[in-house]
Automatic annotation (TrEMBL), chains A, B:
Organism listed in the record: Micromonospora parva
GO molecular function: DNA binding
SMART domains associated with the record: HTH_LACI (SM00354)
Lineage of origin: Bacteria, Bacillati, Actinomycetota, Actinomycetes, Micromonosporales
Protein name per UniProt: LacI family DNA-binding transcriptional regulator
InterPro entries given in the database record: HTH_LacI (IPR000843), Lambda_DNA-bd_dom_sf (IPR010982), Peripla_BP/Lac1_sug-bd_dom (IPR001761), Peripla_BP_I (IPR028082)
Length: 357, 357
DNA sequence: TACCGCAGAGAAAGCCCTTTCCCGCAGGGA
DNA sequence: TCCCTGCGGGAAAGGGCTTTCTCTGCGGTA
């Protein structure tokens, strides 16, 4: 690889001058030398060594991002928002997929710190895991102590700036909607228990049901992976145990899509026999059939806000921005069927006693 | 930020020793000093400066990847394959989204070169653009001249190693399938004309139709963005001009999903009135309703192969691996309807003279 | 006892840039 | 004419790390 001194030598100038031409320094250089340098660059196909540059100008310009998986639409949307603001400000993003592995998350914080990022954004659910949370906070604190900026999206464990989708309110919206439609036998397919996103959404849902005199017993909840296959499988388990269910709340849209797949296989009509509610409103939600009724989160905006916080002026006190959830009514949620559903595989069971307000 | 010399000073050793402990060098260090260094690292929350490291050991370990958009399922799958091999070999991936902007692609080649990547993988369609192709090849050649390895996925313009999905054969499969089902009035919603992927798939499709004595006139092709909305819009235009169409081939699954959306809005039943074929077999294809009949490409495997080529031993001659396409029959393609469709909005028109073999 | 070899540690030379500091020179004002 | 100013350019000092080379001191062999 050609180096800067190669270029300088070839152009018959000092490395300093070559550097100034190449970087468009404010220091003036005569046109003649400039030409010579540019010519040498072209001839040698010179590309500056990014590591050397980054080391020399200890500049801190890139921003580190840790998500679960960029190709998951939830994070893809958030990332779109992050990217938009970053690009506007001429920042490079370094995006890491933790695949929801806490250890990997910790490693990536170190890695990004090592890469001298100007700021760090963690997106995605927090964990109910004290030891991990403490470790993470220590690392983040150490990073902030050296001037790094940190913001989190959707996790409350961190003491600094945060952008929070209102998961709890979203769960509440879902619950209220189903109650309004007359459902009582409501099942939930949930993501991993250890995720705060799961428990927050569940808490809101439960609150809505409780307010309406319904309840949400643990036996009507199935925990699985937060993806399509997890949703499909959890739905199967749920229906197996509780054939009289008239509604299923999926704690994200991917699971909801899995649920629709299982229901189709089972031959249960949506929403005539079973209603389905999703969560997140990923782009694909409107394209499944029937189109998914879901709780929308302003994903792109969440990204925009987080990046703005982190690149904008700091604040004395940590800022928490809560962004509202919104119910999007499409075609998968309908009124509770008039009669008890005739279940195909298993014998119809007597309704278990739901309490009434 | 604490530096290595800070650590060394605190531990009462030389920077050399500290470095050896931290990096697990093969050079032996007494346990006592090791302990002291490790303690200092922990106390100072020391993280090595990645740029300095990368500069000092001019090692070239990371691999650069340029895709259209990682969050596009097509590339997400490919990337999964790339990642798998890279992780196995302890390589870091730097992934850049070109968003199908040739200039950005060129910039990213430079950027990644500047970051001293050991290899470069370009995934995604090539362009029918000689000037661009020449420029890109020059840049790649310059990179290879300095020992860099290059592989491309799905583009023939490059002279080096390549992994090629058989787009043409895939188009052929789609055409043959529709002919077998009796379709004659076949429309195509295609990606941008400038992409070789578009023209390759189209060529295969046209070949199949021609062999069966059908034809594919330009008026039955609509070019649009290679995404959902492009597909929806192109479908609308196509149906508007040609209400008697009985089948639509989408040149990728995203467009196919857009087509399904438009057909649903229009009130045309799939596949009873109109058949739809996709291309790629993205994960979501099986979850739309009806499930999408499509041409499968071994996306993950393509990624695996490309990364293997690029990290494995070099070859004297450039290697081209062509990976086969496969037709996946699901529920969107059916036999041609018996009678001419009763079109809702526009008056039924006389069939234009399709030639018969 | 004298010498060789080796283990373990440090000194210092890069890695490739950027940027400050300094120098020479030309032009303009006194 | 002299001095000051300012412009254009180069020398050199980092930036933080790795790694080679060198040095010291010890145990073992002749």
């Amino acid at each position: 690889m050609a180096t800067l001194s190669d270029v300088a030598r070839r152009a018959g100038v000092s490395p300093a001058t070559a550097s100034r031409v190449i970087n468009g320094s404010s220091k003036p250089v005569t046109d003649e030398l400039r030409e010579r340098v540019l010519a040498a660059v072209a001839e040698l196909q010179y590309v500056p060594n990014a590591h050397a540059q980054l080391l020399a100008r200890s500049h801190r310009s890139a921003v580190g991002v840790i998500v679960h998986d960029v190709s998951d639409p939830y994070f893809a949307e958030i990332t779109r928002g992050l990217q938009r603001v970053a690009t506007d400000q001429g920042r490079l993003l370094m995006i890491c997929n933790s695949y929801r592995d806490p250890d990997r998350e910790l490693e990536y914080v170190e890695l990004l710190r090592g890469h001298q990022v100007a700021a760090l954004i963690l997106a995605g659910s927090g964990y109910h895991d004290e030891a991990f949370t403490r470790q993470l906070n220590e690392k983040l604190a150490a990073y902030e102590a050296t001037g790094g900026r940190v913001a989190v999206i959707g996790r409350h464990e961190h003491s600094g700036d945060a952008v929070m989708p209102d998961n709890r309110a979203g769960g509440y919206l879902a619950g209220r909607e189903l109650c309004g439609l007359g459902h009582r036998a409501i099942g939930v397919i949930a993501g991993p228990r250890i995720l705060t996103t799961t428990t927050d959404r569940l808490a809101g849902l439960r609150q809505a049901l409780t307010e309406q005199g319904r309840e949400l017993p643990e036996r009507r909840i199935r925990y699985a992976e937060f993806d399509r296959d997890g949703g499909a499988e959890a739905t199967a388990r749920l229906l197996d145990a509780d054939p009289e269910l008239t509604a299923i709340v999926a704690l994200n849209d991917s699971m909801a899509i899995g649920a629709l797949a299982t229901l189709r296989t089972t031959g249960l009509a949506v929403p005539q026999q079973v209603s389905v509610l999703g969560f997140d409103d990923m782009p694909i939600a409107r394209d499944v059939t029937p189109a998914l009724t879901t709780v929308r989160l302003p994903l792109v905006h969440m990204g925009v806000r987080a990046m703005s916080l982190v690149l904008g002026p700091g604040a004395a006190a940590p800022r928490v921005e809560v962004l509202p959830a919104e119910l999007i009514r499409r075609d998968t949620a309908g009124p509770v069927p008039r009669s008890t559903r005739a279940t195909a595989g298993s014998a119809p069971r007597a309704r278990r006693g739901d309490t009434t307000s």
